[in-house]
Structures are given as structure tokens and as C-alpha cells.
Design the sequence.
């Protein structure tokens, strides 16, 4: 990121991950190369040539590049985000090579830079990179938390005029919870205290785990099923139970994970993300099984088909190969390999504590959420009392 990079505490560049009997390091290096081939000179990583990019999938692709040892390409991707961040800390939802395609300001898309920044720090420990990205993350998280409701969920987005959407999404809020954990880890790394972020995370986790009615119903979509587990909000036995509960709806045995429960369309990204979710709750064999099924979407050049409709085996979207699908495969391979310094990013294995909030139990999270609600109630009563007294004066 900076012209003169301080010496890395990690002596060796990452090597592309391998999963024995399923993919080799050479396979994953080839897949990362396909992402780099489609990266634009300005650093933006579109879904496919001529297509758009969104900051969430852009970061996911940057993480895959860095995981496979393509550090310079990854850092060009992060520099693109630095260059185009809006003054309020946000990014637009979709970009084309030369312009904004969709102006909406999506909270989950914006928050994900924290996950990418922490992932890159785990890989390289580069003080210069951290110095550059920290203010970017700080502003982004500030924007996102302005969309948190008193109950705790985070509204989906803002219109370009600043008006917030009226609803929250479970998948997005779960991903934001993980990004908040990464942001807190970054803050701790540089000695910054963010107790308001910790409280926001506690309240968000509480709502995800206990208040399903806080979110718009998206039950047809697989991500709403596995994302609370993938994001580390629902863990252990509760996580295993959640994954088992709707597996019959979303998993096509031998093929992969459906994107939508009532359509015979399996995708590489959902299959690999679901594999990581299973790994996070200790179901390694199931994770390996899902990951192996995703390989039938692999092309000879290392790219991955976005999705296949079964039994016809027709590509959907038609003929599409996507950088975000390739990225999901590389990151799942890294999680399963478990040998890289960032391989535990989503599983909690080998990466250390992401943030102080991870050290508390679920009961403590619930207590924090209740205490915050009580504090807000007392504060509201005090404000009302002051207002009444001022009116009498």
C-alpha cells in the first residue's frame, strides 16, 4: 500500500492452500490467477469482465488473492477502496469500470472492509497497511452503526439522500457481526478503544440469536439459513442444530447447496460458505463433503461456474464464471487446510481471539444486551423528565 513497506514479521509469503484428495495448491494458485486476470488496472475486481463490482465481493476476492500469495494484487484491490471511499465512510452498492452503477449504500457491503483488513493483517502483519486501512475501517464502521436500531438489528441500507431502509436482513446483519469482530480486533491491535462497538456487537448478536422477527423474511435463501453460523453468532450445538434443521431444504446431496430452497440451482459460493459454517461447528467431514461437491463447478482453467441447474447441468446465470465464486472456493480451501495464518478467520481455529467480545459467553452477551436496553430506557426517562421540567419553566 505504501511505497516503503516495513519489514514483515512473517518471513514467508502465503502459499496457496491444498485440501488432500480434493484440490492441490497448484489448483488454488490457478484459481487465484483467474481472479487477478480479471482485476482492472485501478484495482477493482468485477464479478466478470465487463460486469460490476460490489465492495463485499471485491473484498472477498482480495482475501482470496492474498491467501494464494498474490499480495500485490490484493493490496491494489484495497487501495481501490481507499481511493473511492465516500466522505461519510461508505461505498456505493455497485460500480462499473468507469462509474457508479447503483448508488444505494448497503451496510453489509460497507462493513466488510474490516474483515478484509483483519485477514490481511493476519497474513502479513504489515504496520504500513494497517496504518492506511484503519481510518478507512473506522469511518466505515461508524457509518454502519448509525443504521443500528434501538433493538439491535442493523438496517439494510441508506438511499443516496440519506433516508434509511425500513428493514434489516439476517444474512447482512450476521456478516456485519463478523465484520464488527474484525474491526474490534484491528482496534485492539493499534491500541484504540471502541466500547461502543462492543456494545453494538453484543446487541446485534442478541437479536440475531433470539429475535427472528427483527429481520425481513428471506427463508427461501440459503444464506439466511447458514450465515448466523458462518459469522460465528450461533455456535456449538446450537449451530449444528441450525444447520441440520434445514439441510434437506437447501442441500442437494452429491451436488451442493441450493442458492434458493425451492429451485434446483446449486452454486459454488453457497456450497463453499456452507462448508466453512460446518467446519466452524466441528463438522469437518460434512465440510469436506460439501467442498468436494463444489469441484464439479470447476473449469479446466481454474475458474468456477457461478451455478448449475440440476439435473440438466445448465449454467445459471448462463455461461457465467465469477470472481466471487472462485474466491469462496479459495477461502474454503484455506479454512479446511488450516495451515495459513488467516485460515481460522471464520472458524476461530488458529487465528486467536478476533476481539474481546468473543471471550464472553452467550449468557453474558444477553446480559449486556439487556443492560444496554435498561440504560437506554433510563436515559429516555431522564430526557423526558428534563423536557417536562423545561416546559414547566
Sequence:
Amino acid at each position: 500500500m505504501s511505497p516503503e513497506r516495513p519489514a514483515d514479521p512473517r518471513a514467508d509469503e502465503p502459499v496457496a492452500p491444498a485440501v488432500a484428495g480434493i484440490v492441490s495448491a497448484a489448483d488454488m494458485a490457478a484459481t487465484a490467477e483467474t481472479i487477478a486476470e480479471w482485476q482492472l488496472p485501478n484495482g477493482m475486481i468485477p464479478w466478470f469482465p465487463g460486469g460490476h463490482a460490489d465492495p463485499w465481493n471485491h473484498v472477498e476476492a482480495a482475501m482470496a488473492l492474498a491467501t494464494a500469495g498474490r499480495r500485490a494484487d490484493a493490496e491494489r484491490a484495497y487501495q481501490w477502496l481507499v481511493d473511492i471511499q465516500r466522505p461519510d465512510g461508505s461505498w456505493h452498492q455497485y460500480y462499473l469500470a468507469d462509474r457508479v452503477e447503483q448508488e444505494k449504500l448497503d451496510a453489509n457491503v460497507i462493513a466488510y472492509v474490516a474483515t478484509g483488513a483483519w485477514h490481511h493483517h493476519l497474513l502479513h502483519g504489515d504496520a504500513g497497511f494497517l496504518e492506511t486501512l484503519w481510518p478507512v475501517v473506522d469511518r466505515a464502521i461508524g457509518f454502519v452503526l448509525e443504521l443500528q436500531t434501538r433493538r439491535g438489528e442493523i438496517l439494510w441500507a441508506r438511499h443516496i439522500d440519506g433516508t434509511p431502509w425500513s428493514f434489516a436482513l439476517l444474512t447482512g446483519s450476521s456478516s456485519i457481526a463478523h465484520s464488527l469482530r474484525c474491526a474490534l480486533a484491528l482496534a485492539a491491535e493499534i491500541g484504540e478503544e471502541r466500547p461502543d462497538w462492543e456494545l453494538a456487537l453484543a446487541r446485534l448478536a442478541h437479536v440475531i440469536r433470539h429475535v427472528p422477527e427483527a429481520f425481513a423474511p428471506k427463508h427461501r435463501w440459503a444464506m439466511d439459513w447458514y450465515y448466523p453460523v458462518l459469522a460465528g453468532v450461533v455456535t456449538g450445538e446450537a449451530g449444528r442444530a441450525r444447520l441440520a434443521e434445514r439441510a434437506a431444504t437447501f442441500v442437494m446431496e452429491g451436488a451442493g447447496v441450493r442458492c434458493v430452497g425451492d429451485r434446483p440451482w446449486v452454486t459454488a459460493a453457497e456450497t463453499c460458505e456452507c462448508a466453512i459454517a460446518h467446519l466452524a461447528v466441528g463438522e469437518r467431514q460434512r465440510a469436506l463433503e460439501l467442498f468436494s461437491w463444489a469441484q464439479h463447478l470447476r473449469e479446466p482453467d481454474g475458474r468456477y461456474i457461478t451455478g448449475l441447474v440440476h439435473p440438466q447441468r445448465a449454467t445459471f446465470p448462463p455461461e457465467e464464471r465469477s470472481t466471487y465464486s472462485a474466491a469462496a472456493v479459495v477461502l474454503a480451501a484455506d479454512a479446511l487446510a488450516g495451515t495459513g495464518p488467516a485460515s481460522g478467520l471464520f472458524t476461530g481455529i488458529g487465528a486467536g481471539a478476533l476481539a474481546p467480545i468473543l471471550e464472553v459467553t452467550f449468557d453474558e452477551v444477553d446480559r449486556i444486551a439487556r443492560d444496554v436496553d435498561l440504560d437506554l430506557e433510563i436515559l429516555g426517562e431522564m430526557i423526558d423528565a428534563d423536557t417536562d421540567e423545561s416546559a414547566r419553566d
